[in-house]
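Quick question, first post here. What does this chain look like in 3D?
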Amino acid sequence: MADGGRLQYPLPSQRHIDSLPRVGQVASLVEAFESRWHATSNSSMPRPCITSEDAASLNAVAVQLHASMTWWITFISLLLSALISSRCLLRLCVCPAGGAEGDAHPTPIHVDLHPSPRTQRSSSRTAGFIVLWFCLACTVAGFSPAFVIRTVSHQWFFDGMRQIGPNPADQLSSVHAIIGALWTLALVHQLLTGYWGIPPRMSSLSEEKSRLSDPGVAMQQRHRPVGYIAAGTVAVCAVTGVYILTFSTVSRFADKIPVILDGFYLTVNVLVGIAHVRQKDIMGHKQCMGFAVVWTAWPGLLRALGYIRGRGLGSVSTVADQALGAGLLNPRAPQYCQWYSFTSTHLGIGEFMPMCASGVCWVMSALMAVLWPGHLEILVGNFLGLLTLVQGAGQFWPWSIAQIYKGIYATSRDDTQFMLLIRQCHTGVDPVCH
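> Answer (accepted):
Ran it through. Tokens below.
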């Protein structure tokens, strides 16, 4: 049965890519494989393994597949960002500065600049802000425990509840956390002042109330300068967040892609939202900034749901130490395991919670689209962007990790070798013959 150190142990399904189980079924597939192996093996059978040459070949194939997926993700992201900003860009091209005043900008929506008591109590307007406040609460709920754990343990963890994966870039992580907290405070300020109304720039009402030193009006007038400061803050936060991923001991290729996309779309929406308001398009500004809050909520939701799941799974500090030696954590994980996210491994929180986080963001975005209908290109661009976060869902998308999963399967010699590979990705058991 053995051939060059490889055990011919076919699976029940035929070896065909179309019959390959989905990425989300890998954990069940590994469990079924181990159950069958233990049920049929005996002491005289050799331990199944793969050669170091085959492992090196599979790593090379994985690198090529990663490059292809990176190209697709970059292309799709730039395309969607162009879609989101298309209205602003079209105005700049068709009506550049110096053109006719009536053509340069759309008609301002004064109701949002200085809403009357009646429009302030508008059910759709209030409901839209409630959706955003819920997203902001999810952000706070997800990130606050990390600050508490950092104060107690003096470390930043990928999973603070079970303390998996301390980040070696501790000081840079602290900078990123502080900037993120400033961005969250800026969102609180902007939502408050945005709801109660911003006095029109250089209006007599604004000047009169400023002269009376009304604290409420003074706070409302800070909406504009705080918005510009927040834009710079979120850009720095996104860049530092992506950079510290390179030091993460747990984040694999599949973990990093959604984080990078989140920071990218968040920054795009903030910048395009500012461009809209400078063109006196308040609805476009509201939509972009609303989606910026949703993109901010996604990592917070992921962490909050991860903490809930982590309490059920219990502490794994001892198992994590063993996994580090076995190669489950990222510094030892081979390239052919980078398509399989750490959250999906037996140390992670599973795939259900990340799917729930993306699903909640989808629902919040849908509610906001119903309550604040306006520019279709902003809605479509952001909805498709949220779809790219669910990397394992699109079995046939060229930018999905499913393509890497299929490529590894097609390159492996047989089903047994493929199962050994994905078992390593899920449990950290080294399949290479020694």
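The CA atoms of residues 109 and 423 lie 58 Å apart.
The radius of gyration is 25 Å.
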